[in-house]
Structure formats: structure tokens, C-alpha cells
């Protein structure tokens, strides 16, 4: 019999330890030491690695030590088996720091993202956790049990009618030009937080009416928060794929869009297509 795991408690312990780590390195210089390139393809900060070490320590001391094998998919280490090689073991999808540029430049909006899945796709995610270190807020969801903010049920919200506020991620200038043009006259304001997980959580809570990534993201960026959006009554799309076809491995790349209203989702998906089309044409 597999042991019961309090995933929320584990995630809270990880977030608390990471918060202490950030406090011990408050300057840009301290946060800008690189170690090489991680399995996800990005240059790895020493801070990224230390945050990931905390995640693995807690997983090894908790579920793995209690006899529950895990398949951990993490931005820096790639796929790691803990406690055995069982192919049907739960998958733990981890982004130790979502918003590495923000944390390096000491901008407050960056997050820890952890998802637990019973299979290998976004549709199989059973638990999601996002901790926003700037606002010190915790977003979480369990499949079939709803989404929470700070332990309280998410009540939704947002504007009635049109798109008032839309979050824009992967905000390289060349990529967002087409998206911004497509959204003119349809959106009142754009906000670029710098963390896909936080922007998705903001859709779930009604702070954003919708969000989009202008270019492809990885599974670790969105796995946890997409469940939070769906449990709050919203919808998430990954490059037009069915959720069961959006894989959780590090090789997968896809644009991400989310909204509480289906019409709003169609609007931001059109903007994504416009962004990709402009880049492809060299415009």
C-alpha cells in the first residue's frame, strides 16, 4: 500500500526554505552567479541549483523515504527517479524558480511551481502549487476539489464583458509585436509579470481576464498553474492541443493561453498566432 502524502505541506516547507535562501542573497551581484546550462536548455544560476537542491532534499526526506517512488521532472536536472524505477510512479513536475530573470534582478515577482501527476500529460495533473515570493501568496489546487488562494477557495472575478487586463509572458520585443497589434482595440491594459505560473494563477483568481505566452514555454512553467486555472472554472490551451496531448517532459514546447471566459481565450489565442506569424515573416 502506497503511503499517503501531504503534498501541500511538502510544498510549503520547500517555499519557506527557498524564501530564507533569497533573503540570504539580496543583491543582484549575489544572484547573478552562473553554473552552466540546465537540462531545460537555459543558463543555470547558482541560485537555481540551490533552490532545486531544496526541492530534492524535501522529496527524498518525505515521499521517497516513506516508500513512494517518484519521477521528478525538473528544469535543471531533467528527469530523475527517486526511490526506484517504477514507470507508473507519480510524476512531480518542478520549476524551482519561475521568473529567473526577475529573481536575478531582484524584481519581486518570481515563483516556485510544483505539480504532481498520475500520468505523463497536463490532463493527468492531480495537484498544483504556486508560491509567489514577491506577494508571499500561495495558490494551490487539487483535481476535483477546487482552487485556493492562501488556503481559501478562489472566488474568481475579473471584468464583466470585455478584456480589461491581460497578462503577457515571454515578452521578448520581437515576439510580442504581433500579439500587441492583434490585441489593439480588444484589451484595455496589458501586464507583463515575468512568471508564467503567476500569470496563470492571476487568471484563476480573476486578477487577469486572460493571459498568453507570446512564444513556446516548457511544461515546468505551467503544469501546476494550469490545474489551478481549470479548478477555478477557467480554460487553458497549449498550442491548440488537447490537454492529454500536452506532455510533461522537458522536450515539449508549446504556447500557453488561459482565460475564465471562452471568448476571451479565443481572442488571446488569435494574438498568439499573430505573434508567431509576424516572427515567421521576419516582420
Short précis:
The chain is 34% helix and 28% strand.
Main attributes of the structure:
283 residues, alpha+beta, D-Maltodextrin-Binding Protein, domain 2, 8-stranded mixed beta sheet, 5-stranded mixed beta sheet, 17 strands, 34% helix
Classified by CATH, the class of the largest domain is: Alpha Beta
Please tell me the CATH architecture of the largest domain by its name: 2-Layer Sandwich
Q: Assess the beta-strand content as a share of residues.
A: 25-35%
CATH topology (level 3) name of the largest domain = Fructose-1,6-Bisphosphatase, Chain A, domain 1
Largest sheet: 8 strands, mixed
Structural write-up:
The protein has 283 residues and is an alpha+beta fold. The chain folds into two domains: 7-153, Fructose-1,6-Bisphosphatase, Chain A, domain 1, CATH 3.30.540.10; 163-281, D-Maltodextrin-Binding Protein, domain 2 (3-Layer(aba) Sandwich), CATH 3.40.190. 34% of the residues lie in helices and 28% in strands. The chain contains seven helices and 17 strands. The protein has helices spanning 7-24, 46-64, 100-104, 173-183, 196-204, 219-231, 262-281; strands spanning 34-37, 43-45, 70-74, 78-82, 91-98, 111-117, 125-132, 137-142, 146-149, 152-153, 163-169, 187-191, 210-213, 217-218, 235-238, 253-254, 256-259. It has an eight-stranded mixed β-sheet, sandwiched between helices. The chain has a five-stranded mixed β-sheet with strand order 12-11-13-17-15, sandwiched between helices. Helix 1 (7-24) packs antiparallel against helix 2 (46-64), helix 4 (173-183) packs across helix 7 and helix 5 (196-204) runs parallel beside helix 6 (219-231). The protein is globular and about 55 Å long. The termini are far apart. The mean pLDDT is 92.
Amino acid at each position: 500500500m502506497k503511503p499517503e502524502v501531504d503534498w501541500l505541506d511538502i510544498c510549503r516547507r520547500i517555499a519557506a526554505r527557498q524564501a530564507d535562501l533569497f533573503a540570504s542573497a539580496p543583491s543582484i551581484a549575489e544572484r547573478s552567479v552562473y553554473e552552466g546550462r540546465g537540462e531545460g536548455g537555459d543558463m543555470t544560476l547558482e541560485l537555481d541549483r540551490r533552490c532545486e537542491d531544496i526541492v530534492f532534499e524535501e522529496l527524498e526526506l518525505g515521499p521517497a523515504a516513506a516508500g513512494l517512488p517518484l519521477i521528478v521532472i525538473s528544469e535543471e536536472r531533467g528527469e530523475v527517479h527517486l526511490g526506484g524505477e517504477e514507470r507508473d510512479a507519480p510524476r512531480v513536475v518542478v520549476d524551482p524558480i519561475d521568473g529567473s530573470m526577475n529573481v536575478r534582478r531582484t524584481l519581486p515577482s518570481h515563483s516556485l511551481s510544483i505539480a504532481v501527476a498520475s500520468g505523463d500529460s497536463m490532463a493527468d495533473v492531480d495537484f498544483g502549487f504556486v508560491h509567489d515570493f514577491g506577494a508571499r501568496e500561495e495558490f494551490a489546487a487539487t483535481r476535483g476539489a477546487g482552487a485556493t488562494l492562501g488556503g481559501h477557495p478562489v472566488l474568481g472575478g475579473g471584468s464583466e464583458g470585455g478584456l480589461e487586463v491581460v497578462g503577457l509572458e515571454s515578452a521578448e520585443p520581437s515576439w510580442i509585436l504581433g500579439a500587441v497589434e492583434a490585441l489593439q482595440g480588444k484589451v484595455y491594459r496589458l501586464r507583463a509579470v515575468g512568471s508564467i505560473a503567476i500569470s496563470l494563477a492571476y487568471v484563476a483568481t480573476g486578477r487577469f481576464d486572460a493571459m498568453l505566452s507570446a512564444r513556446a514555454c516548457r511544461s515546468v512553467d505551467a503544469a501546476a498553474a494550469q490545474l489551478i486555472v481549470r479548478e477555478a472554472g477557467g480554460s487553458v490551451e497549449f498550442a491548440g492541443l488537447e490537454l492529454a496531448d500536452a506532455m510533461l517532459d522537458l522536450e515539449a514546447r508549446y504556447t500557453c493561453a488561459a482565460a475564465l471566459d471562452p471568448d476571451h481565450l479565443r481572442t488571446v489565442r488569435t494574438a498568439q498566432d499573430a505573434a508567431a506569424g509576424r516572427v515567421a515573416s521576419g516582420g
